[in-house]
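Fold this sequence, please.
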Amino acid sequence: MAILTVNQVYTGAVLAKLEMHDSMQVEQMLSTAQQLHKTGCLPEQKRIQILQKLADLVKNEQEDFARLIANEGGKPIRDARIEVTRAISGIHIAILELSNIKGETIPMDYTPAGAGHTAHTILEPIGVVVAVSAFNHPLNLAIHQVIPAVATGCPVIIKPASKTPLCTLRLTELIEQAGLPKGWVQLALVNTENAEKLVTDKRIGFFSFIGSAKVGWLLKSKLCPRGALCLGTRRCRSFNF
């Protein structure tokens, strides 16, 4: 089994050795996520409770996260602390935004056949989310990609940057500790071949990417036609399709 070695960015000291996932494990992740989506998400109030607890758990480890960001990503500790504060705010913002997720009531009497009728729309989870994250904000970017999926009831598989996977790993552990059932958030440590398999699978309902424009547009060209895409570059541009 392949091993991913994570080094301290300046000294080269080994921070962790992590087992990478092979193609069979990627297939199992996709199958698990698809099955969870089919069985239905947790009630909104339960998701809110989980996110509230998660915010507290991250805050309790605020300094540990800051030092982890500094060690694996090389960010000055002052900036790393700011990143953790922003990450905690991101969780609270997701909770607040849930109150804005509403359907619509549409009058249908613009034709005689619709007289006396109304249509109602509801918003439902889009499906399995795959997120490919970047190295430069290893915690905050994971929050941006994972937490909206959790809040809206979508199972999510996140692939962190190979240089900075430890913040995302700890975040996924805390999400489960906060009460989200196993499988709703899965961490994928994969090589390029298995990353492409993950991204292009037809079971994916939404793909979130943060990284270089070159890689983002390449991956977009390989997406399943049904998949939605949210893409951002390190220059903070964003595109929605």
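Confidence is low (pLDDT under 50) at residues 231-241. The domain at 22-98+125-240 is CATH 3.40.605.10 (Aldehyde Dehydrogenase; Chain A, domain 1).
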